[in-house]
Specification:
This protein has helices at 8-19, 32-45, 61-74, 95-104, 107-113, 131-146, 148-151, 186-205, 216-220; strands at 24-29, 50-55, 80-83, 92-93, 118-119, 158-163, 209-214. By secondary structure, it is an alpha/beta fold. A three-stranded parallel sheet has the order 3-6-7. Helix 3 runs parallel beside helix 6, helix 4 crosses helix 5 and helix 6 (131-146) packs parallel to helix 8.
């Protein structure tokens, strides 16, 4: 479970505690063991930190609703919310596309953006939704809506930051197949849908919440150990 030591989430926690060691961190992880391992890793570096955990699987609506209810019971407000969960199941390199990119002079663009190069095999989750769509987008959206009472209506606006990716591309997304059930670039599609959703949430919540949208590459630069 020590693989969490190199995660972006842990790097964010470290950066926050370096800025203000008095804050109370609540770390959300997919399972209890990973949550405790992450908490232990944070406390190794910041022994006096206040760190609690909550178990939530963003790919399960029941888990999201349960975690949101627990957070509403435990906290009166949330000052910062970082939405960072994401999956890319069964990634494969499309060597045929790479060869075509070499012949057409588009290889550098393809290697930079992963467009047409990195494909995934998605599947349905227990809720009947495409797993990548549910985990990378829908679960986050439901969590935000469930936590609005902790984010809005306060004298000091909360800050909500939703991590996207440089792999987010319009070409991979279609409104007629927004869950990307028919394609092979579900990760890119979900991240572009995240871009669109963040714009809508900004319009809806910007007066009460300071919304933020961060591309993964930029987020990685927050701490030298983030990658």
């Amino acid at each position: 479970m020590r693989r969490v030591l190199g995660g972006v989430g842990l790097a964010l926690c470290r950066r926050l505690l370096e800025e203000d060691g008095r804050i109370h961190l609540c770390v959300a992880c997919r399972n209890a063991l990973k949550a405790e391992a992450t908490r232990d890793a944070i406390l190794e570096l910041h022994p006096a930190a206040q760190v609690s955990t909550v178990e939530v699987d963003l790919g399960s609506l029941a888990s999201v609703l349960r975690a949101a209810k627990e957070l509403r019971c435990r906290f009166q407000r949330l000052d910062f919310v970082y939405l960072n969960a994401g999956i890319m199941p069964n990634p494969h390199v499309n060597f045929k596309a790479l060869w075509k990119g070499l012949l057409t002079g588009k290889l550098l663009h393809m290697l930079t953006t992963a467009e047409g190069v990195m494909t995934q095999t998605d599947r349905l989750n227990g809720d009947g939704l495409q797993e990548v769509f549910a985990t990378n987008l829908f679960g986050h959206f439901i969590l935000i809506r469930q936590l609005e009472s902790l984010l809005c209506g306060n004298e000091k606006p909360s800050r909500l930051i939703w991590t996207s990716s440089s792999n987010a591309r319009e070409s991979a997304f279609s409104l007629s197949d927004y869950q990307h059930a028919k394609g092979q670039e579900s990760y890119s599609s979900s991240k572009y849908a995240t871009d669109l959703t963040s714009v809508v949430l900004n319009r809806k919540l910007n007066k009460q919440v300071m919304m933020g949208f961060v591309h993964l590459k930029r987020l990685m630069n927050l701490h030298p150990d983030a990658v």
